[in-house]
Amino acid sequence: MIEQRSFSDSEIGKLYLVPTPIGNLEDITVRALKILEEVDIIAAEDTRHSGILLQHFNIKKPMLSLHEHNYAQRIPQLINEIKQGKSIAQISDAGMPSISDPGHELVVAAIENDISVIALPGPTASITALIASGLTVQPFTFIGFLPKKNNEQKIFLNSLKNRNESFIFYESPYRLLNTLNNILESLGTSTKIVAAREITKKFESYVRGNVSEVIDFFNNHEPKGEFVLMVQAIHEAQKIDVSDQEIVDEIKQIVLAGEKPNIAIKEIAKKYNQDRNKIYNLYNEVSNG
User: What is the pTM of this model?
Assistant: First the structure.
């Protein structure tokens, strides 16, 4: 039987998932600082790295390391602390716990032990980069880090070729060009790429273009910093040759039949495998012209 429980129902401690800045320390929230000051223990991916953050905000709390190499020992210890009435904040080196960082295993263990898990909103590189990319924002799929082995990466990228959404990858500067070349081979020359680096930091920048243009750029400019790589495949072979006027006429017919314009635009964009924003602008230009 499923039982709904309020966070306030628990008589034991709680697990808080607290995002930390991905570069700019000013991005930490007031609530995050409040929780870090109130909890009994902070579970950190790297206590040395997190110690710098806590010192900056003058937060003095006991820290325990939590990473993939000590899960077996540390998770039972943390769960026991919570059962004894202590509250724990879990943080990663930067951004959201569990998102390409440690955290998920502790969350699962807490849920299995009927412990309240409370996630705070905050900085995350993937969504921050996506909304500034200019690519189609919805739908999107967050992939995280691609397979490191070249053949496995190619197989994975090939599995994406017939899908119609934006993809978000994390990539190191040392593997960036190899990954871009695999994207070119797997998804084709028309694939749109936005490579964002050092999000929220001093040297934040975006490189936008088709995959060949982005490869040329990084062949002439050494990749530096951590990258959020956003990809939108354009399936040219599936496109149907249709004029702008024919597209607008079809949308008008659907609207006259009683459908909302946004729904009609979405339907026609899918039918002709066209960018929805482009068709939306086209329809509005003609309707308002």
Answer: 0.74
